[in-house]
Design goal:
Length: about 350
């Protein structure tokens, strides 16, 4: 009788092992069938998912052997804390790695390395936030499930339930900023005042949104510094978003010249310069006299570009070449200060200029 149980146990364990191997290769094959990584990060995510299946699937399918064990054996297995904890940890591991594979699948499907990427950036922002929230929920549930396997933790939990109202009030006051950040994260993820890769001006700094986390946002500034701001900053304070609806932007260049400058010649030169550069998107091109002062005339060159980095390069290009053109062709029309010198006649007061 005892030998029969040993034989049955060996057959069941062998069957589980074979089932584990079979399911591992089936799941791995299905993963590669539905998702073929095109980036190294995606390939690594799929490889980590395969590793989680390899080491964790056995503990997940082990309860399938319940009908083949006696009630005494299953009672021992169920009461065995180590087995239960390993089961929960491995199942959590598999779920998290699967969510990572799904994230990389969507990142590759909605790649935003292109000019018109508004839809892609909107999707990636929501995916990133939802996945982080999903992982937190999974970890909280798995931690609670692990603690419930210990008698002391169950007793503590039962005691805490009787005073849940008091603890809820205390935790609410202590974590109101964290809860506010979480709610702000929800609002940003779905109303989207900012998205991943948006160009923004915050705290007087120009940069791009690099990360949107549950409690903070990372802005990559133009000189590669990182500005870290609490997520509620983008709900409570004003900021500039240069790519809210489109990346197109207008750039301006101001020229200060003498009143004798021929404006039409400068208009023609601006058009020539813009026609000969790929930085201009051929939408807006204007040169206007925007102010006349005592000593100089203010000219504004207005032009458009596909995005803000291109607009910056275009402005520098126009500024340099317009200055060079004026220096070479109209050096007398550069800003100057006029002084009138008169000889004083003896016995007469000098002529006073108004």
């Amino acid at each position: 009788m005892f030998s029969d149980r040993i034989l049955l146990l060996a057959v069941v364990l062998l069957s589980l092992l074979l089932g584990h191997v079979l399911l591992y290769f089936v799941f791995r094959r299905l993963a590669y069938l539905f998702y073929k990584p095109v980036t190294p990060k995606g390939d690594r995510a799929l490889s980590r998912f395969g590793t989680s299946l390899k080491w964790g699937l056995f503990f997940v399918i082990f309860p399938m052997a319940e009908p083949y064990f006696s009630p005494e054996d299953m009672g021992y297995l169920r009461s065995h804390t180590l087995f239960s904890v390993l089961f929960i940890i491995n199942l959590t591991w598999i779920i998290i790695e699967l969510s990572n594979v799904f994230r990389h699948y969507l990142l590759e499907k909605f790649a935003y390395e292109k000019e018109d990427n508004l839809k892609e950036r909107r999707m990636i922002t929501q995916i990133a936030f939802i996945r982080k929230l999903f992982i937190i929920i999974i970890l909280v549930i798995s931690t609670a499930s692990i603690l419930m396997n210990f008698e002391a933790a169950r007793n503590i939990g039962a005691g805490l339930l009787t005073s849940a109202g008091v603890f809820g009030i205390i935790i609410g006051f202590a974590a109101q900023k964290s809860i506010g950040n979480l709610l702000a994260g929800f609002q940003i993820a779905f109303t989207q005042p900012i998205r991943i890769d948006d160009v923004v001006v915050v705290e007087g700094e120009w940069g791009k949104i690099e990360e949107i986390n549950l409690t903070y946002v990372v802005v990559r500034i133009w000189d590669q510094r990182r500005l870290v701001l609490p997520i509620y900053y983008f709900i409570e304070k004003p900021f500039q978003n240069w790519t809210r609806t489109t990346a197109d932007i207008w750039g301006t260049v101001f020229l200060y010249v003498d009143h004798t400058i021929p404006v039409q010649v400068l208009k023609d030169k601006l058009k020539e310069l813009l026609d000969n550069t790929p930085l201009w998107d051929r939408k807006v091109q204007v040169l206007q006299v925007t102010d006349i002062r005592e000593r100089v005339v203010e000219l504004r060159c207005l032009m458009s570009a596909k995005d803000s980095p291109t607009a910056f390069d275009l402005r520098c290009y126009i500024r340099e070449n317009m200055l060079k053109f004026i220096q070479e062709n109209y050096p007398g029309s550069l800003p100057k200060t006029r002084v009138l010198m008169e000889r004083e006649v003896e016995g007469q007061a000098p002529f006073a200029q108004p």
